[in-house]
Amino acid sequence: MKDFKEIKAGSKPVQKLYVAVMLWFVGRAIQAAARIDDDVRKEFAALPEGFTFSLTVEPNGPAMIVGKADGRVKYLGWNPEGKKIDLKLRVKGIEQAMLMFTFQESTAMANARVRLVADGEVPFALAVIRVLDIVEVYLLPKLIAQLAVKRYPAWNFQRKYVGRARVYLRSLLGY
Q1: Numbers of helices and strands, H then E, in the chain
Q2: Structure confidence by residue, pLDDT tens digits, 25-59
């Protein structure tokens, strides 16, 4: 066994940075969409008060934490320490996260291929996935969003373009 050298996997800093930025922006976009979109608001209204979920890349990758408190949805950052997380969505690795966040694979397909695992109540996980799909439609052009979601919705002009501008503006400004 002395003849073989142990090779450790690389840390992939560029991929981690890209996924971290995407999670940061998506987290803030969820917060923004919850204030302007009725469907997102309804999904969060069905969740219990104090509900918190995280989307994390395993094993030590970036994370996003979003919570509901006092009827408002808030992006809570990336660090889960000291937070009670009700639903943990885990992406199994950075390569799988890159497939999802470069929109080569939809959230539904990642779930079907067991690249995205939910630890928590199934109805809550489905609600969060629906919210993620709505937010992806807001954030992405139609050509790319069709790859990222299972079904692209037929929204009117105001919801699609004015809503998109509002989500972008609120995400960048953080309110």
Answers
A1: 8, 5
A2: 999 999 999 999 999 999 999 999 999 999 999 88
Number of domains in the chain: 1
What is the structure's pLDDT at 9? 67
CA atoms of 22 and 171, how far apart (whole Å): 12
**Using CA atoms, how far apart are residues 102 and 172, in angstroms rounded to an integer?**
20
Domain extent, residue 156, equals: 13-169
Indicate whether 111 belongs to any domain: yes
Q: Note whether residue 7 is domain-resident.
A: no
Burial zone of 24 (CB within 10 Å; 0-12 exposed, 13-18 middle, 19+ buried): middle
Q: Per the domain annotation, does 125 fall within a domain? A: yes
Taking the model in full, what pTM does it have?
0.88
